[in-house]
Amino acid sequence: MRELDQLFGRYLDRDWRQSSPAQRDVFLRLLESQDDKLWHWFMGHERSDDAQLQALVDHIRTLPP
């Protein structure tokens, strides 16, 4: 989904370089999630049961365009 690609690109451009290995692992786990789940999480229709994934989703959603 193009919208998700844009959100992920924004994160990679702004945060990836200074992220810790643990933070990078959370992002990589996020990428393994199903597209429909990602869409619902990023649109705020659902929340992830995984607190680390949800915290990252929340962070990415707040990044300026």
UniProtKB/TrEMBL annotation:
One of its GO terms (cellular component) is cytoplasm. Gene3D superfamilies: Flavinator of succinate dehydrogenase. It holds the Pfam family Sdh5. GO terms for biological process: succinate metabolic process. InterPro entries: SDH, SDH_sf, SdhE_FAD_assembly_factor. Keywords: Chaperone, Cytoplasm. It is found in: Cytoplasm. The keyword Cytoplasm applies. SUPFAM superfamilies: YgfY-like. Belongs to the SdhE FAD assembly factor family. An FAD assembly protein, which accelerates covalent attachment of the cofactor into other proteins. Plays an essential role in the assembly of succinate dehydrogenase (SDH, respiratory complex II), an enzyme complex that is a component of both the tricarboxylic acid cycle and the electron transport chain, and which couples the oxidation of succinate to fumarate with the reduction of ubiquinone (coenzyme Q) to ubiquinol. Required for flavinylation (covalent attachment of FAD) of the flavoprotein subunit SdhA of SDH and other flavinylated proteins as well. This is FAD assembly factor SdhE.
